[in-house]
């Protein structure tokens, strides 16, 4: 439903539209949202091709709307392609006395698409940093940052590093730690592992890369 609403608003970014029978003027979309739009017509053509290639009939009733549905879903799944984490992390405030303390957002749920198979991998991200001179961002901005990088064709290792680097770049903290635990459908569906194996990746920057004791403490908080 969300994707359809976005599509309606996208169709008339400056004009008026109707919602519940009433005319209204949709709010202009932020620039990054406009730039992140996918070429839906092209995806639809490609999905028809895939269906034909596996021996299906793209024109049978059950599959008629599939290319359009996949195109809308991809629009959402890859919305992070041209989004900039800096837009979210620019929202900062000074918090006195926060200088030395760990700020952590644990168990941020995310879903991403493995770039090798275009199959989803889903799990949780734990993000921690050590603010410098009390320079912090809102916790919701950490979750947004995870989303910006997750909603692209991805590798879990790179996703972990990109989140850490974005925090380093925009918050200039003393240290960063990111841990991601995820299940990969490409492993499960293709029978490579029969149990619910989880892949765990970490990225450490700054003081959390050098200070072993501090790192152990933060890891302990993440695994709680
Ligand atoms: Zn894969």
Supply the key terms.
two-stranded antiparallel ribbon; alpha+beta; 2 domains; 10 helices; 5-stranded mixed sheet; GTP Cyclohydrolase I, Chain A, domain 1; disordered N terminus; elongated; binds zinc ion
Low-confidence stretches: 1-16
Bound ligand species = zinc ion
- Going across the major beta sheet, what is the strand order? 7-4-5-8-9
- Radius of gyration computed on alpha carbons: 21 Å
Shape: elongated
The percent of residues in helical segments reads 40-55%
Secondary-structure class: alpha+beta
What's the CATH class of the largest domain, please? Alpha Beta
Biggest beta-sheet profile: 5 strands, mixed
- CATH architecture descriptor name of the largest domain: 2-Layer Sandwich
| Measured distance between first and last alpha carbons | 36 Å
Number of domains: 2
Which H/E pattern describes the elements?
Answer: HEEHHHHEEEEHEHEHEHH
Mean pLDDT: 85
Fraction of residues in β-strands = 25-35%
Q: Total strand count, please?
A: 9
